[in-house]
Amino acid sequence: MNRWRKEINIFKLDTMFQASNQLILSDETFRELRDFIYKRTGIYFQDNKKYLLEGRIGKRLQVLKIPDYNSYLRLLNTNELMNGEIKYLYDAITINETFFFRNNFQFQALEKAIIPEIVKSRRDNQRGKLRIWSAASSSGEEAYTIAMIYLERLKPQFPNLEIDIVGTDISSSVIETAKNGVYREYSVRNMPQDYFRKYFIKDESRFFLKPDVKKLVRFDILNLYDQSKLRLMRNFDVIFCCNVLIYFDMKSKIQVISDLYNSLNFGGYLFIGYAESLHGISNAFKLVNFPKTVAYKKE
Ligand SMILES: C[S@@+](CC[C@H](N)C(=O)[O-])C[C@H]1O[C@@H](n2cnc3c(N)ncnc32)[C@H](O)[C@@H]1O
Q: Which of 130, 169, 198, 264 suits 256 as a labelling partner, its CA being 20 to 30 A distant?
């Protein structure tokens, strides 16, 4: 086939898949896709979020050259054990918005009240490193913010304090970005200047996190809805689980929060997103007020 005809064919194929992108996701297939996702992740797409699945999965149809949503659903079901497409599905359906120092009041509470309190309570019975978990870390900005605060503010105050920071997320592509530690303007826009100068190297458009910060954090893929994996996450002093509960329904919120409770040490704290609350989800925690923020304590 000459090059020209080949290009026309590719053009036709692309047009067809663009058109398929505009194919309507039927209510029935939407519900099946929603159930498929919900059973595995706890993420629940309300009826009014159908357009979101349609758009995001539509892009996968295009990439895979699959003509309709039903075939995609069949692919998901047959491929599941091999974990082939699932990872791309999770990348496609998750919303990974985050940035450094996102909720600064939480970090101030951590630095000024919570860590000093935990350090003090530990003095008599040393238990090794202080453990902090950024659950649903997205591309790592939250976990690395904690690492910078440790280097900048906590280490000078508590020279013997050692820290272990873990960041996890269901999406493998954001975990890859987190491990690389290379960011764009958007992520660093809220950074205090002194941190910025000290802990990043900049080229024209990218911001490279320095190795001293990177080496303090470990990242891994983890689905918060997978209870067999959650059972392995134990003995944390502080957990950040911010801006992810909003994607869950009540049942999955209750399950995840109860599992996170078990992951915390007594005396440990849980932070959730600014717009989130544990009202009706758990009364196992004590609500503790800090300047302009709250945290949930396991007593
Ligand atoms: C909006 S981001 C929040 C990032 C960060 N915690 C913050 O507050 O800036 C939500 C993250 O939750 C992750 N997520 C959604 N469902 C999840 C699940 N079942 N298990 C783990 N992570 C999940 C998404 O992949 C996404 O990166």
A: 130
